[in-house]
Specification:
binds ligand 6R9; eight-stranded mixed β-sheet; Ac_CoA_lig; acetate-CoA ligase activity; single chain; AMP binding; 679 residues
């Protein structure tokens, strides 16, 4: 498969092709209790029912005013769902459950260290907390409907409380994953134009209390460099009353939330009735250029889509104890820890720390202690736990009925361990392919109705019609064995509305490639380009090969090669940089950096460390490369483009393709010699 730029290398190009696998059927006990066990549901979402089929999802919500138009395509491809409708997302996730289950735990938070008890927060308590914090945001920080509020919060209940408080006010939240650097956070603050930053002084990870306030200072500084001043920084203390950082508080800017909150005790804030199309949140993700993309999600369409898919694919029932062990700082956490599960009134678990500390039995101990019924994680975690604690699950008496995987392709062998050992052969496994942009699941199986196939995510979700196109826009037929670019033919309620502040880029990246007529208002002319390579088997199941663009998916985290390269270029000695993906046993893919030096500079370990440090500073530790190679020159085309495809071939011990057209073909053997000798 080729990609958009000839100098580019894509993950999909270095994907391993595994053979077709056998089906696994769901256990009868699961089918008997499933939310979707009648095949009639497939007819209700048949193509000729589009778009009205999605009314079924929207009807799971409470609306202040019902909508008049299900799908408005007049400004294609800026789709508008449930037009005329009004609702409040916080009301749907909290208030509406007060009548039926005020004393049921809405959330259970499992903190580090391990001897600390889990904290249950009932729906009533959640309602009180959200109201008080919303009052503080409104009256102290001046937040109102439509304002953007950035969070840089770790995995603590204060994060969902802050999300729901913003939603209650109609403000747009933008959570930046806690592991991102202060600089990355500041860039996102400036891009979204947030006047308020909400953070925490510290959090636990691997048994250590990490100073997080330092990142708030860096974020404000970085935002200022982009010409944006942050007026208010609200800081929760991880241990109320006890400051976990030695960073000074900035007068007039920084405030401890636990000092302010007593003034708002008992206050109530009426949920703002928002148009269905009002943005609910921004979620930044990496893309083709250095500038991150703020994916803007709507209130009505998004909430309807995550509620519907949580019901039918996560099979969530109110009396489940549901645990998605992801971070809320990613789309998975927004959709399937917070909004979907709470909208359905279940108990959602969140945890602080990592799966492997203090030992690789931690997740299974939590599952046993809390009686978790439904479990959700990423292949990278599964691979790690399979390696570090292959028998750990057998030591604990939990029983999962349902398990999900998300974020990367899962190898059939790893899938089988998940099914057999983690799921004890009793749980269904639902592989869910989707993206920050899509809001919810795109390719997956209805667990009681469609059999599982290890390594394949499944067919399109209800009402979702994927198609694979080749480079010239011809359909790649199912069963042909050929890979191509996976697209979704139709819009759906969870699709993001635009890239914040960059509508042209939104159109260009996601819709230009296979658009049939730029003036058309017929959705058939606007296939959505997902940016993944995929293969469709004869049974209509899709196997995702990886990204086709300048994104590397490391342990389920999307990293932009341009962002990595521009971070490396901040190091004085560096003249040129190229980031390439390499296959990695545990993390799926890893990043290797290739750099060349300015004339007169000498290669040294200090330069290599400088590149790593720059990447950690600009993006965060998650982006740390596994190798920094200092090479005498980059392989280049005659027009001077760095041939990443050739470099990746060397790093992966794979074919480098045709190099006869390079300006400097001799460099290939030199680099190969240098790199492969050391690997
Ligand atoms: C939800 C999420 C999206 C990219 C996506 C694809 C990869 C996600 C997958 C999968 C194979 C799956 N991806 N789920 N690949 N099988 N089940 O992960 O969003 O962080 O935006 O990443 O992740 O490459 O394009 P996001």
């Amino acid at each position: 498969m080729t990609t958009e730029r000839s100098d580019n290398v894509s993950e999909a190009q270095i994907a391993v092709h595994w053979r077709e696998e056998e089906y696994y059927q769901p256990p009868a006990a699961f089918v008997g209790q499933a939310n979707a066990s009648d095949p009639a549901i497939l007819d209700r979402f048949a193509e000729d029912r589009f778009p009205e089929c999605f009314k079924e999802y929207a009807d799971l919500l409470d609306w202040d005013h019902y909508w008049h138009t299900t799908l408005d395509t007049s400004e294609a491809p800026f789709w508008k769902w449930f037009v005329g409708g009004r609702l409040n997302a916080c009301h749907n996730c909290v208030d509406r459950h007060l009548a039926t289950r005020p004393n049921q735990a809405a959330m259970i938070w499992v903190p580090e260290p391990e001897d600390a008890d889990p904290v249950a927060i009932t729906y009533r308590e959640l309602w009180v907390r959200v109201n008080e914090f919303a009052a503080l945001l409104r009256d102290f920080a001046g937040v109102k409907a439509g304002d953007r509020v950035t969070f840089h919060l770790p995995m603590v209940p204060e994060l969902p409380v802050a999300m729901l408080a913003c939603a209650r006010l109609g403000a747009i939240h933008s959570e930046v994953f806690g592991g991102f650097s202060g600089t990355a956070c500041g860039e996102r603050i400036a891009d979204s134009g947030s006047d308020v930053l909400i953070t925490m002084d510290g959090y636990y990870r691997n048994g250590e209390l990490i100073d997080h306030k330092i990142k708030a200072d860096e974020a404000c500084e970085a935002a200022a460099k982009h010409g944006h001043e942050v007026g208010t920084v609200l800081i929760w203390r991880r241990h109320p009353g006890r400051y976990a950082s030695d960073r000074p508080m900035v007068d007039g800017r920084d405030h401890f939330v636990d000092d302010l909150l007593p003034d708002y005790r008992g206050q109530r804030v009426a949920p703002e009735s928002m148009p269905a199309e009002a943005p609910l949140f921004l979620m930044y993700t990496s893309g083709t250029t250095g500038r991150p993309k703020g994916c803007q999600h709507s209130t009505g369409g998004y909430l309807a889509y995550v509620t519907g898919t949580s019901k039918y694919y996560q099979d969530i029932h109110p009396d489940d104890t549901y645990w998605c062990a992801a971070d809320i700082g990613w789309i998975t956490g927004h959709s399937y820890i917070v909004y979907g599960p709470l909208s359905l009134g279940t108990t959602t678990v969140l945890y602080e720390g990592v799966p492997t500390y203090p030992d690789p039995g931690r997740l299974w101990r939590i599952a046993e202690r809390l009686g978790v019924t439904t479990f959700h994680t990423a292949p990278t975690t599964i691979r790690m736990l399979r390696k570090l604690g292959p028998d750990e699950p057998t030591k604990y008496h939990y029983r999962f009925k349902h398990m999900t995987t998300v974020g990367e392709p899962i190898e059939p062998e790893v899938w089988r361990w998940y099914h057999q050992v983690v799921g004890k052969g009793e749980a269904v496994v639902v592989d869910t392919w989707w993206q920050t942009e899509t809001g919810g699941f795109m390719g997956t199986t209805l667990p009681a109705l469609q059999p599982m196939k290890p390594g394949s995510c499944g067919p399109g979700a209800l009402g979702i019609y994927p198609v694979i196109y080749d480079e010239v826009g011809e359909v790649v037929e199912a069963g042909s064995g050929k890979a191509g670019n996976i697209c979704i033919r139709n819009p759906w309620p969870g699709i993001f509305q635009t890239i914040w502040g960059q509508p042209e880029r939104f159109k260009q990246i996601y819709y230009e490639r296979y658009n049939r007529d730029p003036a058309s208002t017929d959705w058939h002319d606007w296939p959505y380009l997902a940016g993944d390579g995929a293969v469709e088997a004869a049974d209509g199941y899709f196997r995702i090969l990886g990204r086709i663009d300048d994104v590397i998916n490391v342990a389920g985290h999307r990293l932009g090669t341009k962002e990595l390269e521009s971070a490396a270029l901040t190091v004085d000695e560096i003249a040129e940089a190229a980031a390439v993906p390499v296959m990695d046993e545990l993390r799926g893919r890893a990043v290797e950096m290739y750099v060349s030096l300015k004339p007169g500079m000498t290669a040294s370990p200090a330069v290599q460390d400088g590149v790593t440090a720059a990447i950690e500073r600009e993006i965060g530790k998650i982006a740390r490369p596994t190798q920094v190679w200092i090479v005498p020159d980059m392989p280049k085309t005659r027009s001077g483009k760095i041939m990443r495809r050739v470099i990746a071939g060397i790093s992966n011990f794979a074919d480098v393709g045709d190099i006869t057209t390079l300006a400097n073909p001799e460099i290939v053997a030199d680099i190969r010699h240098q790199v492969q000798r050391e690997k």
